[in-house]
Amino acid sequence: MPLIAKVATTASKTAAALSRAAGRGDGSVIGGWIGLKIDPDLLAHLSSGRAVALVSGTNGKTTTTRLTAAAVGVLGRVATNSFGANMPTGHTSALAKEGHTPFAVLEVDEHYLPQVIEATRPKVVALLNLSRDQLDRAKEVAMMAQLWKVALANHPSIKVVANADDPMVVWAASSSPQTTWFSAGQRWLDDSFVCPESGHPIERQNGDWWCTGCPLRRPRPGWQVEDEGVIDPRGDWHLVKLQLPGKVNIGNAATALAVAAEFGVRPIEALPRLARVTSIAGRYAQVDRDGRNIRLLLAKNPASWLEAFDMAEQAPTLLSINARDPDGFDTSWLYDVDFSPLRNRPVLITGDRAYDLAVRLQVNQVPFRHVQRFDEALAAVPPGRLEVIANYTAFQDIRAELDRVN
Amino acid sequence: MSTESLRIVWIYPDLLSTYGDRGNLLILAHRAAARGIPVETYEVRSDQQMPTTADIYLIGGGEDGPQALAAQRLITDGGLHRAVNQGAAVLAICAGYQLFGHSFFAKGAKCQGLGLLDITSDRGVTRAVGEIRGDIDPRLGLPPLTGFENHGGRTHLGAHAAPLARVTAGIGNDGQTEGAWAGKILGTYSHGPALARNPAIADLLLRWSTGADRLAPLDDTWADRLRQERLEAASAV
User: What is the interface pTM, i.e. ipTM, of the complex?
Assistant: First the structure.
């Protein structure tokens, strides 16, 4: 490593430690920011000599990254950005903090994937899904797929692990000669009715899909979710025991197993490690307070709200919505979510944009009560489970109330 | 389609539904039902024939490719033209608003529109993203418009279309005016579920299509709070 990179690495670690000690944050961004100021190529320098896997997509990135890091951990130490800081500053912090490790598994923001591929020269790239997310500033879905497609075409030696159920992902990955397909299901279909290649409608039947105007169609997956387990490319079924709720996390586990297999890890070795993952940067965390068992679920966009409703138990539920910079300023996505699964339970709402949510719930015929603060919500529900579903900064606000629970 | 109910068509949700556009359909249906008006809603996909006898037609926003495809199919189908000529009411949002005009730009090419609104659209230098607010044409008798806009287009009005509003915050058509209306057609860049923040526009569409001079008032406590909050937020920008 060049001297400047060593200096930058030390400065990065110091700043991150100071940030944590001052209680200002996880230190997962500031350290990388300072390191990259000193050495703009620091991420490339820190990546060299490591076998790197990148995980990107609209949803499930953080969880899949955590599960993948756990699986690859069978082989040795793994550096990973486990706090969900998924831009180059976060990657730089994570690699600097861990020192030299043979492996790195990094969650990457969709927009930054081409840039991070250039810097880290990964062995494997996992592509999860693409759907609408913060459209006031995010690139539209088809443009994002195009961005990925070009980046992968430039690096044919990368092994791509991609979701066969998402036409946008399949099209993006079609430029790569080495793709392993997984099937984890696609609950959200509204962003892939039109073929990105030909512009013709996409037909769907029993989990299969095909373009009506060109050869693009669902590839045969090597890895598949079936019941509470995963079928590997040899056809063997493995029971997946997780502490994380929901069918969607079995899909995330399938992806993690597929990525780890590219490193030579067998499912039977990885599965016990996946079973030990309890919560991820506060997601799925459970906190006991005043006789209430609070469970935190993060939902950032329509697809992940549907998944959160699937995971949430039939219990009082607090919804919190903000529209700050990391969330996107536009709340129109509230109408892409059907909140009717919440009709038969007490619903509380809060957050900067609670009024947007109030109007949405009224139209959706979901009774609710508005509270100004988190402790007001806590006092309003009986002892027992309180499910909390919040979007990004609202989730962080509530996590801060609960002493930054991980 | 029955003739006893209010019939609302959502045009091509498979192509133009990028920003919670379903909200407008849900809000119209909700506000009609709350007045005891029976409602039938139809989601007409781009591979289906466009009904010609509905009362209200909604069309939403979307990306360039689907926008151009939607315009092509609507021109070929012809059903929407017949419905409008028979006096149907229309709410057209963003990409859907543009394609109601004579022409618009998608993927760098000029595309033919439906020609049902006397407007043309081209590309602006910058993208217009953020809160928008405007004073609606006094002839419509509505409170100020509040919305969120996100578009790269600029729209120019001909002699046969009037601006929906004068912009007091945001960009809209060109920084001065926002949206357009003519007869019973309303177009706006206030995207996605525009009616959530502007229930008075929903009621205008309901009055146009039922012929009622006035509708029973609804409890709009939450919508009013939302409107007040967003109108103030637009001022603060």
Answer: 0.96
